[in-house]
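Model: You mentioned two targets. I'll fold them one after the other.
Researcher: Yes, keep them separate.
Model: Target one:
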Amino acid sequence: MYYKKTKKGPSYNFSDFKKACKEKNRNSVFIFDEARKGADKYFNLRTKDQILDFIYNDGLENRSFYNTAPWEKNPNKNSKIMVDAYEFESGDKRGYLAFMYSEITNKWIIKSFKLSTNANNQILQAIKKADLMEKFNLEE
């Protein structure tokens, strides 16, 4: 298995995924249609090259591991594929990226690329942006 057996951390090394986004390795990355649509709609990234450039060139600002879980829609139930999810910032937007690695195809697969639905984080970001933390002498 490619993924690490871990209970709390990511299943994959993010640096391995990022390397696959480099221009010469791009044939080893596949993007689901829904992920491509989300990248276009929310982050104005319209092509595979734009999405992979964004990832490779550190566009995922303040990236933080969100979770890892088995791929629920895996058509091959005999081959367990784990999905790692991360949240990130891009300008004033909070994003969500989920990806996995298929040993059958030897490809990285971007499953999701969209806005984060983590309301707690979005509220915190809005409070920070409005400088309410300082105004009311609050701590994180």
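Model: Target two:
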Amino acid sequence: MHSRPTETPSRIDALDAARGFAIALMILSHTVKGLLPFKLMPDWGIVPVHAITKFSSTLFILVFGITLAVVFLPKVGTEQWPVTRVKLWKRGLLIFISYKLLVWVQMFQIYPKEEIIDTLLSRRFPDFVEILQFYGWFLLLTPIFLPMWSRLPFWGKILTCYLLGASSMLLQQVDFGDFWQLKAILVEYPRTYCFGLMPRGTMVLFGLILGDRLVDQKTRERSTRELSAVCLLLGTMLLGTFVLLYYPQLQKTVLAIAKNAGKHPPKLPFMLYSIGGSLMLIGLFLRMTRAVRILLSPLVTIGRESLFCFNFHIVVIFIGYRYLLDLRHHVTYPQALLLTGSLLVLSVIGAQLNGWTKTWRNYQNAQAGEGEPSDTDLVRADDDRVNERSRPITDLARDFANRRGENREELQRRARRLRERPRF
């Protein structure tokens, strides 16, 4: 592997805000659905409120792909890549652990022990936290395919994306027999809430193609405007196609989508609606001004601590709302929305605290390892350096100043890297 220096990719607040909005939509969907069945929801609660939440998973996956292009793709082939590769694998394993723990959190109250064990062993699949399994698998696969992806020309990336999507459609027609769980993980299975690696992975690759425009930091401002226009155009085309194809029964189709029809495995109406809406949202977020960015700072905070917020909201819903407070089927729809708002506020506060804790812990580790030593440490002589005491005081003072300056610069570099580190 050749080694070349590279700049540390900077964060893009618009992507953090889009990711945060996707998590916020998941919180809305999961809180309401975790407390109320569809039959207890008013019509306006299903369309438009619950219909809007169908953008959440697709939006999250597309932003994930764009973020891979912006943050990780520039590190391929550099001296940073070996460390980054290990971090991706560790992150994937952490997400798998979170996934298994959240499976138990979701199921412990009302499911029999046998079903919980089957789900933990991937013989069944849950319906609230399954996106974490897809996320974990893809992070584990990313260090393997990303170097190959980086060497492909633009047309090769388009062809790869198309072939992966076409292959997933063909595998949908194959009977896996008793190994239907494998089919669910690869290409999804009817009446199973599992995000297939191949159909959803096609979205990640599409996000990588879109994110290529943002890799060069020198032209990022112009590229952001161009990508925004592309996303808005593609989103409008897909939503327009959706309306034209299903106009005679548009209300009925949207109602079915709001109730997850065509989501697992993905069908054309759902994908046109979900991908089109997600692309339009990404285009709008990329165009946000400084004032809008300040207004949407809570979403940015959630987006930067998305894994924490996802884990946190599942714990609050299933342990706090359902188990401790016994609110399942005991609230009205407006009350469920109020509980959703409360959970969003708690998520923002928790995400901010978690971010501060990470920054402080990393700062302390940096200071302990390569940070700026104290004055006493700088002038203390070791046993093998006794002769240092006999040097003129001016030389000692000069060395003292030089060593402080070098350590301060190193600490500042580490602090900048910590501020710019990617969060998913």
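Researcher: Noted. Anything on target two?
Model: Confidence is low (pLDDT under 50) at residues 1-9, 371-391.
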